[in-house]
Amino acid sequence: MKQVVLITGGTSGIGMALADAFISQGADVAVCGRSEAALERFSRTHPKALAIQADVTIDAARIAMLNAVAERFGRLDILINNAGTFVERNFTNGADATQDLEQEVALNLTAPIQLTGAALNRWPAMAAIVFVTSGFALVSPTRAPTYGAVKAGLHAFAEGLRRQLAPRGTHILELLPPAVDTPMNANLPGKKMAPAKVAKITLKALANHQPMAMPGATRQLPMLLRIAPNIIKRMVAEM
After folding, report:
1. Catalytic residue among 123, 147, 154, 174
2. Is 119's pLDDT higher than 70?
3. Which among 10, 97, 113, 238 is placed 20 to 30 Å from 26, CA to CA?
4. Residue 28 sits in a domain of what CATH number?
5. Helix or strand (DSSP H, E) at 31
6. What is the per-residue pLDDT across 7-18, written as a single tens digit (0 to 9) for each?
7. Does residue 147 have an active-site annotation?
8. Which domain holds residue 47?
9. How many domains is the chain built from?
10. pTM of structure
11. Rounded to 5 degrees, what are φ and ψ at 133?
12. Are residues 202 and 130 in contact, defined by beta-carbon separation less than 8 angstroms?
């Protein structure tokens, strides 16, 4: 039986790479996004997939999206909470560093939790739920401390949910990518990982029932935080 996969923020970057990877494996895929133009481009490339215009921070939009998945495919096997945003905030320059903070927290933290709850209420025995966090969930970036905060919160939620759902057999996978070559990181200097490589590692982690997928540089992060925390903090201070 084909897997049915829903990917939030699936029209670009890591989300689109994941959609491509699942489709190539024969899965039925639904993606959501806010841009009508991006959804139309996705549909032209993937005519058999379901592209849904939805703002995941809005309750009615989340419910309508799950309704669309149920109507088209009848069920949901894998939910991938990928939609997110990176906002730089400087609390030292005298400006209002908390402007639009509610929207950042809603998209990066509250919405994935709420969508997960709604999906579990409808499909209690889903095969897997994926949370895309970041290496910054483990050590917060100097230029975007609230991003580190919300990703750390999602990391903690995934950890606790994994224990709750273990008796049901639902696999909880946390993906902690490094800097990835996506539109969000277009102005970020330095080496960036290809989204397709992140997607390949993610699907392998799902197949192997790993709790975490840590591509590239993030793979060494937990060990380095144990043995050389000050070095890591100095490195992050430059990010």
Report:
1. 147
2. yes
3. 113
4. 3.40.50.720
5. strand 28-33
6. 999 999 999 999
7. yes
8. 4-237
9. 1
10. 0.90
11. -105, -120
12. yes
